[in-house]
Predict the 3D structure of the following.
Amino acid sequence: MKTEQHTTAPVTLITGGASGIGASTIRRLLAAGHRVAVTGRDRGRLDRFAAELATEFDEADAVLPVAADTTDFGAVRAAVEATVERFGRLDHVIANAGFSDHGNLADGDPDAWREMLLVNVLGPALLVKAALPALKESGGRIVLVGSTAGIKNTPGNMYSVSKTALTSLAENTRVLVTGAGVGVTLIAPGRVDTPFWSTHPDGAVPAGPVLTAGHVADAVVWALGQPDGVDVNTVVVRPTGQLH
């Protein structure tokens, strides 16, 4: 059933949202009455996730799954267009897609670095470019999900390089769009217990304090919920006890 609240609820597009931080963020947004478009490369996985959400929230019309490669500008632009066509506008974008090959400059795989840099740096830049016209119209917000690895470098780690570049992209974007009334927030979480660690050589989260995906999702939703005229630019969220 479509009510006036449903058709005027905020609209968010999030990349790589079918698991981990993205999935937790989507659940929080839906619980708050938002409408959400979510991208990913695996169409089947996206459809299953959307069906799960429709059952969980009893609202199939509030979720739009869009199969898209975040490193392909045509696909990203099409995802933005599909979101606006479906929901009528776009209020927020969240560049969440990213990964690490967990290698370093001494023993890492250069081919893996290339793909990681494309996903972690080029992908968010393409999302910003594709979404800017709609966000300027709505006075919307951009959230880039970075990492404390982009605040405090990890020796020789190319993932850290990619997130440092993303940290720069956030500020570069802010100075570009703030005069147009668009907000930009970098969310830089510390160690988080998510499927991110499944590709780690140990296959598990390193020992020590960790955040949950829900903790980071809370920070993302908080940033999106700031009142007009307030632009929170950098939020670093570590588990208590994480030194770097």
Strands lie at 11-15, 35-40, 63-67, 92-95, 141-145, 183-189, 192-193, 211-212, 234-237. The two ends are 48 Å apart (CA to CA). The chain has one domain: 4-237.
